[in-house]
Structures are given as structure tokens and as C-alpha cells.
């Protein structure tokens, strides 16, 4: 059971998307886990064959409990099963309290899931809402499982005259917003209780970035256009290469800088709540790739389809409320991360350029950082570096 | 296409982006972003969908002309 957040102690396995004997490869989605953040798709991080499923659908088990055994490609079928391996690459921030979490019950290998059970929750919900019979849908997910896009495809192919079922409208992709609020409350309370925040504010002249975006998008169809957010994410990722003290985790009384830069992006969920999934290896992606990832991530979050690694891996987070008119936000760090950047609204302001007062597009960027790890001087340098990178958007 | 047909397409795409919003309660003369609670990513997705369905190119410089639902329908009707 992977840790999908600092305050997650246990998770409920809702369904398997594979069965013993199935071949899996790195990145395949093999199971769905229900957490306070909704139904999370669980990936595997190695190639191999599913040897056995150790946890039955419906069981709630503590973080760290092996869910399945996977035999590597070089291991013979008769070889002993490898040691169980949690699906998450990073251990939980804190070990689950035995008194709170249910003991891991070594459940017998689950029977092969039936055709009906091999449907992702998001797909099942969409099908129910639209009155689509799952039996008539061919799955394209792992092991032929029916995933969200399969139901979408079936909907597009369905006759337009099909009567619309009278069902309640989905609440943010089927996400339980009350449970999510509880999770946010726990994480934010822990953050404010444990992390000595300090806050910095820095005004960035975004005129060059906006001009470059307008020129770049001028010749592009809508599907290939860029948003300013992609530039900001890219600039932050590049700046972090020079300032590793803001990229990593504070756990067990010490800071561990992360070699990889996985920028988490706070995405609001309709109806309330938010999640901040990672754009993996952000610093290695070109701006167009960052934009594509951001677009995909936003769509999936709002459809209630995000992956475990996207929730557990962010090494820093960016939050933006500029579109809601907020000029500056001072965000709360998501533990065990040690920093979060806030991006405000781009506003026209008088700005001195070459000794003259001119109207410029100005964004207020803020940094909330963990004083146990860094100090304001370094934080100021990080913000200044982000500013400098945004003055040359063509180089991002 | 008629204006009504275009409006139906726009509302359908808005429904895909903001399924929780009751289009019947939205003010067609109000700020589209406010009425449907959409951000820049949603708006870009809307423009992309309208481009694909109606074949109308909507350059960024024209975005202000799609300020309201009525504006958007008028803009698209002149070009579809």
C-alpha cells in the first residue's frame, strides 16, 4: 500500500486491474485504492509477471503492506517468489500507528477478477451516470480492463437519441469532497504545527514572458497553445537545480534533498478541495512538454483519475490563485515537502524601465519555506533566479 | 449553422468542462468564466473543442470577444 500523502496511514484496495499470470511493465496501472483524496490508480515500478495478489478488494491495510508479488522477467516460474515490494518508491513519511491501523492480514491470493470487476471506479461511475452497459464495452486498460476513456468512447458511439438518465450530477469526478477536506485539514494542521514557515514576496515583470507567449501562440492551433503556467513551472524547475534546499523532504528529523525535481501543481477540484500532483522530472521537460503534462494532469484530476505516484512524489509545490483575482498568496507547505511557491494575478503596474515609468505586467510570486532547512537569504535568491529565468522565456 | 445550433454546441462543450454547472441558470450575458467557473486551462480546452467541432480558428487576440455566452455565439456564428 503506497503512501499517497503525509497523513495517510492506511488505504482501501477497491479493485485489481490485473490477475495472477498477467504481464505488467513499469508504469502500468494495476489496482485502484480508495483514499480520502478519492480513487487513486496504483502503478507498478518494474516489469514482470503478477505472481500473486496478497490483498483482497475491499480490505483496508496500512501503508507499506505488500499488495502483490511480481516476478521479474529473468526469474523462472518455479523460482521462489521475490520479497514483497510496496508499490510506492518512497516509504511513508511516518510509520502507521499500530493501534490505529488495522493489522495487515495475509489474505489468500484473490481469485482472478471477473470481467465485471475489471472496471476502474471512474469508468464505472461514468457508465452508471450515463446509463451505459459495461458489458458492451471493450476495455483498453491493463489486462483488458475498462477504463474511463473506454466509456467515453462508448458514449461518443452511442445514439444521440438515447434517453438521458436522471441521475445526480457528478461531484468533482466522483471525489468525496468531505473526506478530502478532512485530509487537507490534517495535512495543513500538521504543517502549521511542525514546520516553522517563513514567507517571502517578490514582484516579477512578466511582460517579456507574456509577449513571448502571445507571439508563440499566434501561429499555433488551440490544441498546441501554451499558458503562462507552463513557463512558471519550467522556470521553477530550472531554478531548483541551483537551489536544492527547497527540493526534497524533511523526514525523521532531517532534510533529504531530492535528486529528481518533481514539481507538484495545486489543481482545484470543482465543488471544493484540491490536489497537487507531480509533473515528474519537470526540469528535463521542454515547455511544450510541461504544458502537455499540465493539460493532461488537470483533465485527469477533474475527472477523478490520478495516479499514486503523482500524489506521493512532488518534491515542491506551486499554487496559483491569480485567475481568481488574488494578487499574492502565502501558501502552507505540504509536509514532508519543505517549500511551496504562490503565484498571484498578473496585473498592470507602473514600473521603472530605463529610468522611465512604464506600464508592465507584474506578477507577485511568494515563497513559503521551512526554516529548519533554509533561511530567507537563500529563499530570496531562489525567487530572484525564477525572475531572471522568466526574463528570457525563449531560453526556457 | 444557425445560432441556436452553435449555442447548443457551446453549451455541450461547457457541460463537458463544467458538468456541475446548470447551464439553464447561467446568465448568457454574464462573464463566461464566472458563470461557468472556468479558468484559463478550461477556457483553452473550450476554444480547442470549438475549433475542432466548428472549424473556427479563435486566435488569442480574439478571446475578449468571447467574454459572454452570447458574445461567443455571435462570434462563432459569423465564422462557422
Explain this structure to me?
The complex is a heterodimer of chains A (396) and B (80). Chain A has eight helices and 19 strands. Chain A is α+β, with helices and mostly antiparallel strands. Chain A folds into two domains: 148 residues, OB fold (Dihydrolipoamide Acetyltransferase, E2P) (Beta Barrel), CATH 2.40.50.100; 204 residues, Chloramphenicol acetyltransferase-like domain (Chloramphenicol Acetyltransferase), CATH 3.30.559. In chain A, strands 8, 11, 14, 16, 17, 18 and 19 form a seven-stranded mixed β-sheet that branches. Chain A has a five-stranded mixed β-sheet with strand order 6-1-3-4-15. Chain A starts with 9 loop residues before the first strand and ends in a 6-residue tail after the last helix. About 14% of the residues of chain A have low confidence. Chain B has four helices and no strands. The longest helix of chain B is centred in the first third of the chain and has 15 residues. With 80 residues, chain B is mainly alpha-helical. Chains A and B meet through helix 4 and helix 6 of A and helix 3 of B.
Amino acid at each position: 500500500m503506497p503512501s499517497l500523502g503525509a497523513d495517510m496511514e492506511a488505504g482501501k484496495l477497491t479493485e485489481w486491474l490485473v490477475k495472477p499470470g498477467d504481464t505488467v511493465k513499469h508504469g502500468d496501472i494495476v489496482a485502484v485504492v480508495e483514499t480520502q483524496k478519492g480513487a487513486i490508480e496504483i502503478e507498478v515500478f518494474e516489469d514482470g509477471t503478477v505472481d500473486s495478489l496478497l490483498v483482497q478488494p475491499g480490505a483496508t491495510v496500512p501503508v507499506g503492506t505488500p499488495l502483490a508479488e511480481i516476478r521479474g522477467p529473468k526469474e523462472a516460474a518455479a523460482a521462489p517468489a521475490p520479497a514483497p515490494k510496496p508499490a510506492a518508491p518512497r516509504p511513508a513519511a511516518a510509520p502507521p500507528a499500530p493501534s490505529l491501523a488495522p493489522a495487515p492480514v495475509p489474505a489468500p491470493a484473490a481469485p482472478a477478477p471477473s470481467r465485471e470487476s475489471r472496471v476502474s471506479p471512474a469508468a464505472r461511475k461514468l457508465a452508471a451516470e450515463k446509463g451505459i452497459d459495461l458489458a458492451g464495452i471493450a476495455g483498453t486498460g491493463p489486462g483488458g480492463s475498462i477504463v474511463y476513456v473506454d466509456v467515453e468512447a462508448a458514449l461518443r458511439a452511442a445514439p444521440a437519441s438515447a434517453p438521458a438518465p436522471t441521475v445526480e450530477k457528478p461531484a468533482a469526478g466522483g471525489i468525496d469532497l468531505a473526506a478530502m477536506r478532512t485530509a487537507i485539514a490534517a495535512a495543513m494542521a500538521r504543517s502549521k504545527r511542525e514546520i516553522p514557515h517563513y514567507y517571502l514576496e517578490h514582484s516579477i515583470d512578466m511582460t517579456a514572458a507574456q509577449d513571448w507567449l502571445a507571439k508563440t501562440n499566434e501561429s499555433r492551433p488551440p490544441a498546441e497553445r501554451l499558458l503562462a503556467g507552463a513557463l512558471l513551472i519550467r522556470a521553477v524547475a530550472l531554478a531548483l537545480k541551483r537551489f536544492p534546499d527547497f527540493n526534497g523532504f524533511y523526514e525523521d528529523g532531517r532534510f533529504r534533498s531530492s535528486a529528481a525535481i518533481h514539481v507538484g501543481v495545486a489543481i482545484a477540484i470543482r465543488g471544493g478541495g484540491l490536489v497537487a500532483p507531480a509533473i515528474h522530472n519537470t526540469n528535463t521537460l521542454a515547455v511544450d512538454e510541461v504544458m502537455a503534462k499540465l493539460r493532461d494532469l488537470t483533465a485527469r484530476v477533474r475527472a477523478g483519475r490520478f495516479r499514486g505516484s503523482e500524489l506521493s512524489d512532488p518534491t515542491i509545490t506551486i499554487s496559483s490563485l491569480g485567475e481568481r483575482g488574488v494578487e499574492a498568496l502565502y501558501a502552507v507547505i505540504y509536509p514532508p515537502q519543505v517549500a511551496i511557491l504562490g503565484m498571484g494575478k498578473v496585473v498592470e503596474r507602473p514600473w521603472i524601465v530605463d529610468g522611465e515609468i512604464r506600464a508592465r505586467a507584474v506578477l507577485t510570486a511568494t515563497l513559503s519555506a521551512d526554516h529548519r532547512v533554509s533561511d530567507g537569504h537563500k529563499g530570496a535568491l531562489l525567487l530572484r533566479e525564477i525572475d531572471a529565468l522568466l526574463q528570457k522565456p525563449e531560453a526556457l | 449553422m444557425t445560432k441556436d445550433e452553435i449555442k447548443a454546441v457551446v453549451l455541450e462543450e461547457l457541460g463537458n468542462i463544467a458538468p456541475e454547472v446548470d447551464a439553464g441558470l447561467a446568465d448568457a450575458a454574464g462573464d463566461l468564466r464566472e458563470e461557468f467557473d472556468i479558468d484559463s486551462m478550461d477556457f483553452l480546452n473550450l476554444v480547442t473543442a470549438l475549433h475542432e467541432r466548428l472549424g473556427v480558428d479563435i486566435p488569442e487576440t480574439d478571446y475578449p470577444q468571447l467574454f459572454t455566452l452570447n458574445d461567443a455565439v455571435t462570434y462563432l456564428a459569423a465564422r462557422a
